[in-house]
Design brief:
about 75% helix; Na+/H+ antiporter like fold; mainly alpha; single chain; about 400 residues
Length: about 400
């Protein structure tokens, strides 16, 4: 069998497996991403070790699938930006800002602390803390909708806090990867150069996005080009992602997210989301989540690493309850409401997986630590709706006084 036919067969197995896992997951009222990730785990070295079957002799097959997965990450972050409005950041309440900020800072510190206790290097420990700082509230939003609480004060604040969380984690990730790449013999001058490079990228990209992109989108939309608007969006997303890493020294996913955020201001936003979602979720995003499972070997989690994984799971839950809950309390929420908001922020989901994958790609964490974080993401994603349902089931669905944000 030729290498191309091996690639086609592997894609068929991965896509069918991922979509089947996603369907089963949604039937069990869990996010589709969880099923897609578990499908990848089954196909990967944890269970079936698919890429080492006799039918797959191409040594570069995993690399080809990895490239498709990386494209899926770009599309996922582009969509994340498109589905937000810039003015949502300004409209988010004091509670959302405090909960989102402390919900990043405390998991980073607690994650770093527990990893140092288990003997990890400072760099790896800080990166694990950064993974734990990420959040994904899609499953929490679904649970709150079932309880009639999505437009409650807790629901609105939770969704607003998630916006702050996403932005802060992406910025922190970009700073971390930029500085760790240059810190080998870096002095103050080199660090300042990196920071100026980042500031220059953001300033230029935002200026272009605010003034030029809406005009270009309108012009392209009027041209007789087949699917021209979707093609324009993809090109801008890829260009911003490339420029972010090649010119700005920051993570490519940050550039894709920024492109989506700026394109969300255009009048074609809804059509763009629909078209790009079709492209992304029919192929590239399922391959990305399945590929995480293909790279994960849960059999490595034995001995000391197993105890470390259990400790990280406890920290993953406690740090969001403490950080987001404390922020909500400082913002004027009751203790029960603060605990509900913290529980809603526990799930790491897509964002945590993206950060972990970037860390593995850039050799910031080892394969064993990557497997540990993937297992942690799975466990806390399963725990979130259970914990949130118990905490929120007896609450009154009081309507919020400010408009709800769109769930991630």
């Amino acid at each position: 069998m030729t290498n191309f036919l091996q690639f086609v067969l592997a894609l068929i197995i991965i896509i069918v497996g991922a979509k089947t896992g996603g369907y089963i997951s949604t039937r069990w009222k869990q996010p589709a991403v969880l099923g897609e990730l578990l499908a990848g785990l089954v196909l990967g070295p944890t269970v079936l070790n698919m890429l080492h079957w006799g039918v797959f002799s191409d040594g570069h097959l995993g690399e080809f699938i990895g490239h498709l997965a990386e494209f899926g990450v770009i599309l996922l972050m582009l969509l994340a930006g498109l589905e937000l409005h810039i003015n949502e950041l300004a409209k988010s309440s004091k509670v959302a800002a405090l909960a989102g900020t402390l919900g990043v800072a405390i998991p980073v510190l607690m994650g770093w602390g527990v990893c140092i206790l288990f003997g990890l290097s400072t760099r790896q420990a800080m990166f694990v803390g950064l993974i734990l700082a990420a959040t994904s509230v899609s499953i929490s939003a679904q649970t709150l909708m079932e309880l009639g609480l999505l437009r409650s004060r807790v629901g609105v604040a939770m969704l607003g806090a998630a916006v702050f969380d996403d932005v802060l984690v992406l910025l922190a990730l970009s700073v971390f990867t930029a500085l760790t790449g240059d810190m080998g013999a870096a002095g103050v001058g080199e660090v300042l150069q990196v920071l100026l490079q980042m500031v220059g990228y953001f300033a230029t990209s935002i200026a272009i996005g605010m003034w030029l992109l809406p005009r270009l989108a309108n012009r392209v939309d009027r041209l007789h080009i087949n699917q021209g608007l979707y093609l324009f969006t993809l090109i801008i997303g890829l260009l911003y992602a490339w420029a972010a890493e090649a010119l700005g020294g920051i993570a490519a996913i940050t550039g894709a997210f920024l492109a989506g955020l700026l394109l969300s201001r255009t009048s074609q936003r809804e059509r763009t989301i629909e078209g790009v979602s079709t492209i992304a979720y029919s192929l590239f995003v399922p391959v990305f989540f399945a590929n995480i499972g293909l790279q994960t070997n849960a059999r490595n989690l034995s001995g000391g690493l197993l105890w470390m994984t259990l400790a990280i799971i406890v920290v993953a839950v406690a740090s969001k309850l403490l950080g987001c809950g404390l922020g909500a309390r400082m913002g004027g929420m009751s203790p029960r409401q603060s605990l509900q908001l913290g529980a809603g922020m526990i799930s790491r989901g897509e964002v945590g997986l993206i950060v972990a994958t970037l860390g593995l790609t850039h050799h910031l964490i080892s394969q064993e630590i990557f497997s540990m974080t993937v297992v942690t993401v799975i466990v806390v994603t399963l725990l979130t709706p259970i914990l949130l349902h118990r905490l929120a089931a007896d609450s009154e669905p009081a309507m919020a006084t400010e408009p709800a944000l769109a769930p991630e």
